[in-house]
Amino acid sequence: MRFTLILLLSFTFFSTLSAQVILDENHIPVDPAELHSLNSPYSATLTFFYNLREDNYDPETASEVLRTTGQSLEESKRLAIQLKQIFDGNGVYVRINEIPNDPNYIDSLHNNQSRYFFDTRILPGVYLEKQNEEWKFSAFTVDQIQSLHKETYPYGTDKLLNTLPKLGNEVYLGLHFWQLAGLFILILLLFLSHKVITLVLDKGLLYALEKFGYGYVGETYLLPVAKVISIYLIIILTTIFIRILQLPIEIVSWILLLLNAAKPFVVTIVFYKIVDIVSMYFAKLAEKTESTLDDQLVPLLRKTLKAFVVIVGTLYVLKEGLQVDIVPFLTGLSIGGLAFALAAQDTIKNFFGSIMIFIDKPFQVGDWITSGDVDGTVEEVGFRSTRIRTFRNSVMYIPNGKIADATIDNHGLRQYRRFYTTLTITYDTPPHLVEAFVQGLRKIVESHPDTRKDYYNIYFNNLSAYSQDIMFYVFFEVPNWTEELRSRHELLISIVSLANQLDVRFAFPTQTLHMESFPEKKTLVPEYSPDAKSYQAKLQEFVSKELNKKD
């Protein structure tokens, strides 16, 4: 808003030139009769614009440049004035010394016909055409004048072109009084529009959002977008009303160029901020899923969309706003892109590797993975590399291209965590005690809350060199390694307690020297009861005391 006001106020420091064309004194004909010539594009252009200058106002002569079909003189004069206003309102800057002065001029660039186009981008339907040895604005151009005039001055603003000059033509600071008055009205209109829009957004929109419980979202995300949109509306108003003031064409052309560049620039900012709103929505959806990879994908998506918006917005500002021909740039970019792709093929490989990770989801943030020398917990998945925290607390950065091609063992996706060990007991343990001990181990597994109940293997399965071996093969249903260690701890404590209750001794590699027992000394070998019922009683006592108390 401040920039617009400063830009408008600066116009008062320029002297006005009512002519559409800049006349090179070396090209101005000495004989005034030459100003009525139509024998070339140069002379026809000079005749039309020179006779509509404020200091040489002759619309009747200017209307002769129009190829009219049955219009009256007054209608032809009105059309000539409207065509001049179309040039002025669109900021089409005609440089007379650049127009060809060849009576047999051929437009070899567009259609190889005797036509001259002033601006094929802004006014593609306005051109001079040679017929019967005379260069005039074509009949097609004349038919388009009224519609082009309404497009240039929309919403009834064309009526102000005849109303404002009635305020006075006195010249102050290089501008007519009606132009200064119109400039003041425009500044006042923009100021009031800014205040009204700000009041509606800050009070109305924010109040409505707070009423529905979206106050934080509105203030953080929607309100900045709405304010930028309000700037866009002010630019639109400036673009419409600046044409009515009929300021010097060289100034209007630059103003419209800047305003046309400001439109896509503001739109780019709007979409840039909309990306934050979209990212917030996807972040809410990611929070509802169990996968943590979605949470990592949202920031990457936000960065990608913002980069895309900036690139497209920049190209649009250059092409549509500043009228820069970006085709050579895009052509060079495509050729240079091939060389860049060859030089950065590893980077591109890592980029597509990251895409495959997000599509296949072999792991997610927080998973414990193993792949070759890599062993640790996934902390972050980027577009180039994946960050893994090892169990040494160091950080490894692995290119995604290598991860996509590697074999990954994802421990985090395990539903059950296996625990396998061998319990070795001494050879002097009688069979009925071994059987009671195995039964007790099974009851320990069945009573533990984190063990898998539908599949486990506990059997007396081997006779080794120094022990009788019992296979203890179970699974834990726990989410992480810490809970697995806790469950192992509880299970092993119960096993040791059971062994102590049943007087089961664990074996270890030893050499035993047997000596004759003496009457005054007892042997080291324990005396086992030959009755299996006694051990069953002890097992029941262990179950009732140790296992039931956990329930």
UniProtKB/TrEMBL annotation:
Residues 346-411 form the Mechanosensitive ion channel MscS domain. SUPFAM superfamilies: Mechanosensitive channel protein MscS (YggB), C-terminal domain (SSF82689), Mechanosensitive channel protein MscS (YggB), transmembrane region (SSF82861), Sm-like ribonucleoproteins (SSF50182). Residues 1-19 form the signal peptide. It is a multi-pass membrane protein. Keywords: Cell membrane, Membrane, Signal, Transmembrane, Transmembrane helix. It is found in: Cell membrane. Residues 422-495 form the Mechanosensitive ion channel MscS C-terminal domain. InterPro entries: LSM_dom_sf (IPR010920), MS_channel_C (IPR049278), MscS_beta-dom_sf (IPR023408), MscS_channel_2nd (IPR006685), MscS_channel_C_sf (IPR011066), MscS_channel_TM-2 (IPR011014), YnaI-like (IPR045042). The chain crosses the membrane at residues 177-201, 221-245, 251-275. Belongs to the MscS (TC 1.A.23) family. This is Mechanosensitive ion channel family protein.
